[in-house]
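Operator note (shift B, R.M.): manual run for MerR family transcriptional regulator requested after the automated queue skipped it. Running by hand, logging everything below so the morning shift can see what happened. Input copied straight from the record, untouched. If output looks odd, do not overwrite the archive copy; leave it for review.
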Amino acid sequence: MYTISDVAKLLGITAYTLRYYEKEKIIAPMRNANGERIYDDSNLAWLRFVMRLKQTQMPISQIREYAQLYLEGEHTAQARLNLLENHSNSIQSQIRNLTATEKMLKDKIAAYKNSLAKETGIY
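Run finished. Output pasted below as returned.
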């Protein structure tokens, strides 16, 4: 079992972020007798998944939707699959855009290096 500060440290996020995820109904940690949040290994695994989704630009609203669908039970599996497939398609589009941008930057960098080399006489 982990405290909110333990989890924040383990995941490299703030306690504020954990409270925000709770407010948004993305996670529902247990509480001890004093009302303090207590997290277990399954909460950590879930939060790592949430953090990956955030890193890939999934909006909080979609993460919340996925979390709610999961809590509703197995009958929502198709809806969860659809949500993840749509997000995967979005990631693929991002990758294509980033790859094209990287190529453009590499071409521009090469042009600058070539131009500078000609100016200095260094080939």
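Quick read of the result: The longest strand covers residues 30-31. Residues 22 and 28 are 6 Å apart (CA to CA).
Leaving this for review. - R.M.
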